[in-house]
Amino acid sequence: MINLYKKDEVDFSHNGLGSLDSSIINPLIKWHDNGAFTLEFKYPIFAKHGKDIENSSIIKANDADGSNLFFVYKVIPNMGYINVYCYQISYKLAFNAIDDTFIVSKNGQQALQQIASSTQYPHVFHFSSDIQTVANSRVVRKNVIEFLLDSKLDNSFVSRWGGHIIRQNFNIAMNESYSRDSKNYTIRHRKDLKGYNAEIDESTVTTRIRPIGYDGLMLPEIYVDSPLLNAYPEPRIQQFEYSNVKVKQKPDDEEGFATIEEAYAELRRLAKLEFTDNMVDVAHATYKVEFVALQDIEEYKDLKSLVKLKAGDTVTVIHEEDGLNIKAQIVEYSYNPLSNSYNSITLGNFQKTFSSTITKLVDSKVKEVTELAETALVSANDKNKITHGSVEPLNPKEGDSWVRPNPQDISETQWLIWDNEKWVTEMDSATQVKKGHVISEINISEEEILIQADKIHISGKTKIDDASITGAKILNLDAGKITTGTLTAISIKGVNIEGSSITSSTSDNKASINLKGGSQTFTDVNGKNVGTIQPTRDFATGRANGFAIVSNPGDIFSINAGNANNSSSRPVIQIPANANEDNVTANFFGQLKFENIQPLDGRDIWVVSPSGRKVVLGVAGNSKLIAEDGGVAVFGNFSVFNGSKNAVHVTRNGLRATPAYEMAESYLGDIGRSYTREDYEVWVHIDELFSDTVNTDIPYEVFLQAYSDARFWVEDFKSDKFLVKSDKPFQRFAYEIKAKRRGYENERLVEQKRDNEEIEKIYMETEIKDNG
Fold it and tell me: I want to staple 716 with a disulfide (CB 3.0 to 4.6 A). Which of 215, 360, 651, 723 is the partner?
């Protein structure tokens, strides 16, 4: 089953909110090796769980490897349906962050363990890896998915350690290969795959390598050839550089081979590895098989075993005309979790281009060497080490330095020194004042003099010129001795302030509030007057009658709800910028609650929108009734108490109503015409759009009307068609099909939840109306 769960569910051993199987339309899982892993489907808004599906809801469905979890990241309503888009649950890690961690000389498993414990907040994911390659990576301000899969990042996992990601529920593995089991399955190019999408790209093939060692060292024979040299019309030549292959210049040199012959042998060995391990002499090949298109094709029987393959499985593709065998993996698929079958698979060997492969190899090694070198720089005294990075150095000795990101602001660097007990800053390690000692300079720098002490007592006359005192308590201050013209950042309590004007403003913009003569004036961040709170008078009599909030024409006045601390509020009542004395307009947002509404002028109450805009009535944030230029739409159940549902028509004798036909169960119908063929029968196909609205997988009804003297009957039913037979050939008939509405298959005479008082009120209203 395809099951729906709440966004905060943690236990997936039960069926959650329920199954989506009966109403879900076109579910499709798309998977790409080290790439996107998604689920998308269509669902009727008013089916059983249509209102339960929302962003972050969790879906459990089968992919090609078994049961898996996906979370909803986008829901788009469209014409009575919602289009739902989901990511595999591992993408939740894209919301988590790695602030700063330095992975040093670790294999795949160790690297993932460090990353798992370095996220900004805890998570429920489990990591594993079988990759034994040892590498380094400094990861700063990246999310976990970026680090694992972004091949454009030089320090990502796939760039430094390689491998393939395997995502199953909350388990994430980065392994040498996606599948450890090769299916030992062989297909032949232009035979088994004849007529299907097969693409062979030889532009990246190399069959002859010119290996170059340190300082331009070359082989006497210059080239090393591939065993597949003759499989192509001409040799494909590329130069590969191996700068670590060198010959010792002096016998006591630490690096290099003792003789040039040994260096030559190493160049030949490395070049041959490019053919045997990196397969640079094999073409880049992809094969796409569309299973839906192949189902009715005779040749499909030769490929049936492909449907048994799993993601990452390997097959052998033989090119007989070229004498090549290519190992191709499933690198991409689309899968239907409802029918548990592939729609398509893509096989490929996906070799990188040679230039990018070589560049990446060299760059990666240089990066690793640079990072390691940074952790072990020797200071000028040849005795101490200077370590760079966020990882604390091991076994430091007195005088060693550690340059790290400042924990308070990782955009800054902090220099620490080991004092034989702990890491201290340069300032901490300077000469300090000890008990009974006096020094002439106390922690002095060009910027400031820092005096740190629990108690400082200053006696005698002390003068402070052009300075500021922050966070201090001054007792018994004589205000008469304050002669300054401006007091900044003060708090005054328990006083009366008299004056002509008081202005409150900030230094970072021109916004202010000015209180003057009983009026309060507001200016915006540009210093523009935008409105006032002021006393009012009756225009006719001139008598005072209260106060008003007045916004200037062209400016907005708004009463908002939300968080005033971070400006994340939204308007509830708003006078728009175009309002003025002749255009008295107000906008209302959110919910308006009225009791005993009475129109001021005694006329009817109207709710009218401008042309092209809608009037919407809703409950709990969901629209239930929408009135627009094209008519009125009702979302959800529509019940009529003590009345009928009528269509009103214009007739030659006035407006007349036609009541709707009512049934005990929810059926939808469709009608049409057809005729039987020469074999006395015809299959009538159910209209696809109609079938989207009903469930024809359960019994439905067909009614026939003869348009001849023949006898007709329905012989067989299928979900997309039904078989009609007659006792004569070529006989015309009409049919009517009635099927249960999708999502309402089990409803019959649904009880309406109303208490006795409500029912009595409904009937009393009818009786009063009928009896006058």
Answer: 723
